[in-house]
């Protein structure tokens, strides 16, 4: 028997806003897949921004350990691309294929360059200039067809790793007739306002396009007999592109969909409620494939969840996540347990909102008209998720929570020590090629150095 193939299907900026997670959104094909896989209900990314999150997932190391502190399209790079999953699998004889968006190397609009830097054997992505495209879902669908064609013609030749990346859930959303805005509701963390509903309708339209593409890929895997010979994972990079989600360490920014199927696993078709981090993906995959893992990996294998049916002992007591750069410098760290979230911002020189870190959108405009510019960040925050799942009530100064806050702060500090966080001493070397906005910038293209 050949080793299992790996099919990695991923989207931009989607959080866990999919129907398997209880949202009324048009993702029927993804839901059908979820019923035949394991749905991790408490999955989190390691960073609420694109490149750091993806680098963490695909190296098994936290962003600062992988060296990915910011976005590749702004000049940030990993320390060593040999640590990328693609190269780990190539060493084991896997053929590696990129189709669609990636965000771990070069500019995401230059897939051929990114594929070369990362080390993919083959790039089947349709060439395009994304910035000039009015409907990026068309490019996504071209890449879906490329993927299906490649699977049909080449999928059985040798074990492969295939990355199929969807871009259209990143703003601007596809044009078209979005779902009737009067009959949808934004995610619960946001006001049910007309402008925000209309904005979310655009996101739903993008999800519908993604779902159609996922359906074609899964159908092709089944038709070719590869479905039962492939580990398939569906996920996204971080939370939705709205204020207090993407670029923020609240659950709305770091909670993600993570649906994974291992052939013949007795756990397929179940929900898993335990905490997992995307940084655990590489250790888990290597464990399932019986490939020795390097000691420098910082994730924890949850492969045992696929080996036995039913509830098993939790592998994690907490997950950790970090923020460094999106457009501007806004360093923060967090620890989340099943009950509590502790967040600490590490730049004491600026307590205002880093507004350019929030994607331009109708939802952002609504918040700007309601005083977002004048709101200050809580430099330290503790949230009791049992009573405050939306993380709106900071209890850091409440007497009954002081001991819990100190315990979590200590655990977070210990994690920084163990992972050699460069911000332990409050500083690190800034590189000339990084494009960085001023902390006070409101527009994403207002570049300024430190």
Would you kindly provide a written description of the structure presented here, covering whatever features stand out?
With 450 residues, this protein is an alpha/beta fold. The protein folds into 2 domains: 5-306, 3-Layer(aba) Sandwich (Alkaline Phosphatase, subunit A); 319-425, Arylsulfatase, C-terminal domain. It has 11 helices and 12 strands. It has helices spanning 28-34, 50-59, 63-66, 85-90, 111-118, 136-154, 194-223, 251-254, 281-288, 362-368, 402-418, and strands spanning 5-11, 38-44, 95-100, 122-123, 160-165, 230-236, 258-261, 270-277, 319-325, 329-336, 340-345, 380-384. It has an 8-stranded mixed β-sheet, with helices on both faces. A 4-stranded antiparallel β-sheet has the order 9-10-11-12, with helices on one face. Strand 10 (329-336) and strand 11 (340-345) form a beta hairpin. Helix 6 runs parallel beside helix 7 (194-223). The model has no long low-confidence stretch (mean pLDDT 95).
Taking all Cα atoms into account, the compactness measure Rg is 21 Å
Distance between the amino and carboxyl termini? 54 Å
- What is the share of helical residues? 25-40%
Indicate the low-confidence ranges by residue numbers: none
């Amino acid at each position: 028997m050949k080793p299992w193939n790996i099919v990695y299907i991923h989207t931009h900026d989607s959080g866990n806003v999919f129907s398997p997670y209880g949202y009324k959104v048009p993702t029927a094909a993804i839901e059908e897949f979820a019923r035949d896989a394991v749905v991790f209900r408490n999955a989190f990314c390691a960073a609420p921004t694109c490149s750091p999150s993806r680098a963490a997932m695909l190296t098994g190391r936290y962003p600062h350990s992988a060296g990915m502190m910011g976005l590749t399209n702004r000049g940030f790079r990993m320390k060593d691309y040999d640590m990328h999953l693609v190269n780990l699998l190539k060493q084991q004889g896997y053929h590696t294929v990129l189709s669609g968006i990636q965000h771990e190397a070069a500019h995401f609009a230059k897939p051929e360059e990114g594929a070369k830097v990362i080390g993919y054997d083959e790039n089947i992505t349709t060439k395009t200039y994304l910035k000039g495209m009015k409907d990026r879902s068309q490019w996504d669908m071209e890449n879906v067809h490329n993927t299906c064609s490649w699977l049909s013609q080449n999928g059985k030749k040798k074990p492969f790793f295939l990355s199929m990346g969807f871009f259209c859930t990143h703003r601007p959303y596809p044009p078209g007739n979005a779902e009737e805005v009067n009959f949808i509701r934004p995610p619960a963390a946001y006001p049910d306002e007309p402008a925000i509903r209309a904005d979310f309708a655009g996101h739903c339209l993008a999800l519908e396009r993604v779902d159609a593409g996922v359906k074609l890929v899964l159908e092709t895997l089944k038709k070719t007999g590869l479905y039962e010979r492939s580990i398939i994972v569906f996920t996204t990079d971080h939370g939705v592109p709205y204020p207090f989600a993407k670029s923020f360490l609240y659950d709305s920014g770091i909670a993600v969909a993570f649906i994974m199927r291992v052939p013949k696993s007795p756990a397929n078709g179940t929900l898993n409620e335990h905490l997992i981090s995307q940084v655990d993906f590489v250790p888990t995959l290597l464990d399932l494939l019986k490939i020795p893992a390097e000691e420098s990996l910082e994730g924890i294998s949850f492969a045992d969840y696929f080996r036995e049916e039913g509830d098993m002992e939790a592998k994690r007591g907490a997950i950790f996540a970090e923020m460094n750069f999106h457009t501007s410098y806004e360093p923060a760290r967090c620890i989340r347990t099943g009950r509590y979230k502790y967040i600490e911002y590490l730049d004491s020189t600026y307590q205002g909102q880093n507004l350019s870190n929030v994607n331009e959108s109708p939802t952002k405009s609504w918040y700007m008209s309601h005083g977002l510019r004048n709101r200050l960040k809580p430099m330290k925050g503790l949230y009791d998720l049992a009573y405050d799942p939306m993380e709106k009530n900071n209890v850091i100064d409440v007497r009954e929570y002081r001991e819990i806050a100190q315990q979590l702060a200590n655990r977070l500090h210990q994690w920084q020590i163990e992972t050699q966080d460069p911000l332990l001493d409050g500083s690190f070397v800034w590189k000339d090629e990084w494009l960085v906005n001023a902390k006070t910038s409101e527009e994403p293209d207002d570049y300024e150095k430190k």
